[in-house]
Amino acid sequence: MHHSDYPLSEVPTSARKGLLSTSAVLLGFTFFTATMWAGGTLGQAFPIGQLLWIILIGNLLLGGYAAALAYIACKSGLNSVLMGRFCFGEKGSKLSDFILGFTQIGWYAWGTATIALVLVRTTGMPEWLEIPLMVLFGFGFCVTAMIGYKGMDLLSRFAVPAMMLFILISLFTGLVDVRGFAGLSQQTPTESMSVAAAITVIIGTFISGGTQATNWSRFAKTPKIAVISTMAAFFVGNGLMVLTGALGTMIYQQADIVDVLIAQGFVTIAVLMLFLNIWTTQDNTIYNFAVAGCNLLRTEKRRLVTVGGAAIGTVLAVGGMYNLLIPFLVLLGTFIPPMGGVIMADFWLKHKGRYPALDAAQLPDFNRRGLAAYALGAGAAYFSPLLPPLVGVAAAAGSYAVLLRLNHATLSDTLPSPAKQ
């Protein structure tokens, strides 16, 4: 814990990582139970042939969005909340800090509650242990995040291969039980869902994570490594999670890989999968919160903010965040993506693909164009009947491009006075 992982500055060249390291951390992030549950809803609504195409398209769109931000992060050495200073302003960026931090603390609360409840149900422990376990895991899972990138890297290098092996064992066993793809093709949907809604669910499950995956892609040595590792996580890794949940529902009527492994008789593997699955996402999630919190408070004390976030997440878990997953996904899919749209438009159109050094940049308190474009993008996503996340990104980026060409007094940005700097 000798350094703070550069929460308020660019990642220097000396701290950059290779493909194995960035891929391990990002894959650990996307191996998440909630994604499998979302896949379970798709498994009930589509035949296997159509389902595979939907998973492919949805995760390709999600991966492309996350990879575009990863490229910018690697080029600049900045994460999304620091990029927000350029497109929203010094004070205006606190909006992105709050929204991104709030969503991550919500996921942390959900994961903390999930592991406690599932562990009690799986092992037959008394129900009164649920709350003590939430407290234990709420603070325990933040340890690797407190260490920083190195701690999450070490955990992911062990956890990701292990989880991949467990998933392959489960998928192989499931295909044997259902008599292969011939048996899957005979499964009939029990629910109805439009293709657009299904793609929205896939994107919505991890669009918040994709926006904040810049916290690790900015550590990549080259933009190529950043893009490849991000696509590996958000296209391949997240796609595998969706597929696992869908097949589990189709074969065993269980979306969660832990429940499926138990149904297959792999109880020990199921418990290990539960811990690794939740832990590798929880530490990334609370790390995201800490980075957003550091920018919001303008403090280098990332570890202190991490513990504070873990405390908030634990309180929310005990208070019943477990039951609020679906509304939370809708919130994420509506209000997070437009932020990425503004960031991309600002980087390429206003700054021509290169930010100035953050500590030397003369930034306004409020970038009115960026804030207006975000509001328009969020509004478009909220009212869109079709693919809200993609509509939000396109509307925000397009609005920013148009506003950049307008020379109007109400849109002019005022730099802070020397006394404020």
Automatic annotation (TrEMBL):
Coiled coil: none annotated. GO terms for cellular component: plasma membrane. It comes from the Bacteria. The chain crosses the membrane at residues 20-39, 51-74, 95-119, 131-149, 158-175, 195-213, 225-251, 257-279, 304-322, 328-349, 370-403. InterPro entries: CodB, Pur-cyt_permease. Keywords: Membrane, Transmembrane, Transmembrane helix. Gene3D superfamilies: Hydantoin permease. It is found in: Membrane. GO terms for molecular function: cytosine transmembrane transporter activity. This is Cytosine permease. Pfam families: Transp_cyt_pur (PF02133). It is a multi-pass membrane protein. The gene is codB. Belongs to the purine-cytosine permease (2.A.39) family.
